[in-house]
Design goal:
2 copies of one chain form a homodimer. With 237 residues, chain A is of the alpha+beta class. Chain A folds into 2 domains: 64 residues, Orthogonal Bundle (Arc Repressor Mutant, subunit A); 162 residues, Chorismate lyase-like (Chorismate lyase, 3-Layer(aba) Sandwich), CATH 3.40.1410. The first copy, chain A, has 7 helices and 9 strands. In chain A, helix 1 packs across helix 3 and helix 2 crosses helix 3. Chain A is globular and about 55 Å long. Chains A and B meet through helix 3, strand 6, strand 7 and strand 9 of A and helix 3, strand 6, strand 7 and strand 9 of B. Chain A binds a DNA duplex (19 and 19 nucleotides) through helix 3.
DNA sequence: TAGTGGTCTAGACCACGGT
DNA sequence: CCGTGGTCTAGACCACTAG
């Protein structure tokens, strides 16, 4: 019944963990493609597909004739690709829950259209404020259908990461995202949270994350105070 | 001496042109992968690699068991991936040059670091204001080294597109981009251009485009008025 | 020159969609 | 059922980097 993870995704996740755990540091080279082939008994096509994924996620870059190098985690936030906050940065990041996961209504604050099927279900909501050091940089609101994640409200997040929780506890992976980006005035309440005056420009990013389960999309509204920590994004073919 | 374009990129560009010219309309299916194999005498690996590129650029989506469908050109701007404005939208778009391409100094308005080699060269600058219908939505400032594009100032743009000009006149392709995104107040002059009051929130996006020529990067500063036309972005693995 | 990534071939089997 | 895309194998040759 459940979908089988393809080989390349196993390798991809394995390498990603190695990088996240610091076993391969920025600037270092990953094992060569041929190494991976031998180690995991796969062909180069599969090895490359795994590394393609890591490139898309911004973890590595290929250097022709040399190898695949782990990329610097920029001190700006490597956000805005697939995946959330905790995966992107690792250092002086702090997260405060303003609202723990609990049942709620589908809000009309959600910027991207919620699918009809999901509207019929009930919905789980949570809200977090993210800091770099002591500076609040991102307010994050999340909605998703409660039909495929039984017991979600009651359990803790794995490593504090929502997406890691999805992956490890429910075997659900994020496979894509659609987003819009706007510049807006901060509302009163947002201003208080960020410690800025009402009317300061804020980045507003509605996102819809798609997952390996068609029944589950994550709808997020992000508000970012970009004066010290701009949002960043890289893309290579 | 010159780099040879790989097969998959030829196919990719061919299909992209077909879509841009409206031979395949949004919602329609492209030829199947097997069709492409026969038509161009290639294997599926190559056909898929070509289509992978189109997916990354947001032109198509794959539907398992069905085919590859041309995606709707959203009436929001499909910008923010690789490639510029004219490639992304096709309809009621207008462009006004505020400053034609001409020699200039490397400005300190450029947000992302200019490489040392490029700093030593002289630089070409141009500035455009982009409209959707009669609404100005984006102010675009561009700098790049003049060493690899002889005669650039004197010639017209191909189809009004800077990137198409690079591709067709100089055989240079954009292969990636790095960008930051900030929300800022509009300055006086920007406010006048957009017909908004000073202090309205604007999206500010410094971008560095990488090309097939290591000597050429395009440094852009975009300012977007997002209240009617937010910037958009999709990503799928 | 040895080892790396970049491209490509010629197959194979599977999962999914629609008839 | 057939045709589609999704994954994978087992090779090959080329272009680039570095000792």
């Amino acid at each position: 019944m459940n979908k089988i993870k393809p080989k390349y995704r196993h390798i991809q996740n394995y390498l990603k963990e190695q990088i996240q755990q610091g076993n391969y540091k920025p600037g270092e080279l990953l094992p060569s493609e041929n190494d991976l082939c031998k180690r995991f008994s796969i062909t180069r096509t599969t090895a490359r597909k795994a590394m393609d994924g890591l490139i898309n996620e911004g973890f590595i870059e290929r250097i022709h004739g040399k190898g695949s190098r782990v990329k610097e985690r920029r001190h700006t936030l490597g956000l805005l690709n697939v995946k959330g906050f905790s995966e992107a940065v690792g250092e002086g990041v702090k997260t405060v829950f303003l609202q723990n996961p609990q049942k709620a209504k589908w809000s009309n604050e959600i910027g991207l259209p919620v699918s009809e099927n999901e509207k019929k279900t009930s919905c789980i909501y949570f809200e977090r404020l993210r800091f770099v050091g002591e500076t609040p940089v991102m307010l994050e609101k999340n909605w998703f259908s409660d039909t495929v994640l039984p017991g979600f409200e009651k359990s803790e997040f794995v490593d504090g990461s929502f997406f890691k929780t999805l992956s490890q506890r429910y075997l659900i992976e994020v496979v894509g995202s659609t987003q819009e980006i706007r510049a807006e005035y901060a509302h009163e309440k947002q201003g208080q949270l960020f410690g800025i005056i009402k009317g300061t420009p804020l980045l507003h990013i509605p996102i819809k994350f798609s997952t390996t389960t068609p029944k589950l999309n994550i709808y997020s509204e992000l508000y970012c105070e970009t004066s010290s920590y701009p949002v960043a994004n890289s893309y290579f073919i």
